[in-house]
Design goal:
Layout lengths: L1 E5 L2 H18 L4 E4 L6 H12 L9 E4 L1 E3 L10 H8 L11 E2 L8 H14 L5 E4 L21 E4 L2 H11 L8 E4 L2 H5 L3 E6 L5 H9 L17 E6 L9 H9 L8
Parallel strand pairs: 1-10, 2-3, 2-6, 3-5, 6-9, 9-10
Antiparallel strand pairs: 4-8, 7-8
The structure holds 2-amino-2-deoxy-6-O-phosphono-alpha-D-glucopyranose.
């Protein structure tokens, strides 16, 4: 895993946007895996800015989002579909029929999850997957104890994730208990993965992900097995890494042809 430590959240967002820009420049028909939460907000702002400046073209891209709350319609302001519309899709030239998110109001969740997996496969698989990380080490909504080979399915949120996400809903009671999320196995099949983390609240999860044992107790730790995964973090999220100086040294000595 490549660990890139940037001075602040803005630099994290810019580095990630540069990698997405390069991906779309290399392959205009890229299949992008997208994430929600507060972490990628600056990244989406930067991507929109680059699109407006004529550097990023979504005309031929396809997207699949990681997850959605069960019970929320796409019009609910806290749904991830609404989040994506507001922060990216309404501001760039994405084709609506190329946008995919799990449907939180589907009548048959298992069938819908299988269909979602089929759609990813038919699109050719995910070229570049963006991830955040939960304070308990979850990716997507794959909470601790999730099977490391799981596929898209229903999950029940932990009380900790409910508490973490209550800030978006106003109260814990309003946070849905269930979600549909791509599985850990689904995420691992993406050809390239970029994980973003910012702030001291993520430092423990980041250290466990990068330097801890691979375990379902920290679902993000399976990314140690991914052949092409970059973790981009700010200084605050890097404070518990044992080998931070080595990661900085590697980045500083990176050959030019590997840079975005
Ligand atoms: C949510 C999302 C994840 C996200 C994580 C961290 O539960 N399902 O995709 O990475 O929590 O959220 P935040 O970026 O707001 O800290």
């Amino acid at each position: 895993m490549e660990v890139i430590i940037k001075p602040d959240p803005e630099a994290v967002s810019k580095e990630a946007a540069a990698l997405f820009q390069r991906q779309l420049a290399l392959k205009s028909t890229s299949v992008l895996g997208l994430a929600t939460g507060s972490t990628p907000l600056g990244f989406y702002r930067e991507l929109v800015r680059r699109h407006r400046d004529g550097h990023v073209d979504f005309a031929h891209a396809t997207t699949f989002n990681l997850d959605e709350y069960v019970g929320l319609s796409g019009d609910h302001p806290m749904s991830y579909r609404a989040f994506m519309r507001e922060h990216l899709f309404a501001q760039v030239n994405m084709r609506p029929d190329h946008v995919h998110l799990p449907d939180g109001q589907t009548e048959d969740i298992p069938v819908h999850c299988e269909d979602y997996e089929d759609e990813i496969r038919h699109a050719g698989g995910i070229d570049l997957q963006l991830l955040g990380i939960g304070s308990d080490g979850h990716i997507g909504f794959n909470e601790p104890s999730s099977s490391l080979s799981s596929r898209t399915r229903l999950k029940t949120l932990t009380p900790r994730t409910i508490a973490d996400n209550a800030r978006f809903f106003g109260s814990e009671a309003d946070v849905p208990r269930h979600v549909i999320t791509m599985g850990v196995g689904t995420i691992m099949e993406a050809r390239q993965v970029i994980v973003l983390a910012m702030g001291a609240g993520k430092a423990t999860a980041v250290a466990a992900m990068v330097e801890g044992a691979i375990t379902a107790s920290v679902p993000a730790s399976i990314l140690q097995m991914h052949p092409k995964c970059a973790l981009i973090i700010d200084e605050a999220a890097a404070t518990q890494l044992q080998r931070a100086d080595y990661y900085r040294w590697v980045y500083d000595h990176k050959p030019h042809w590997q840079r975005p």
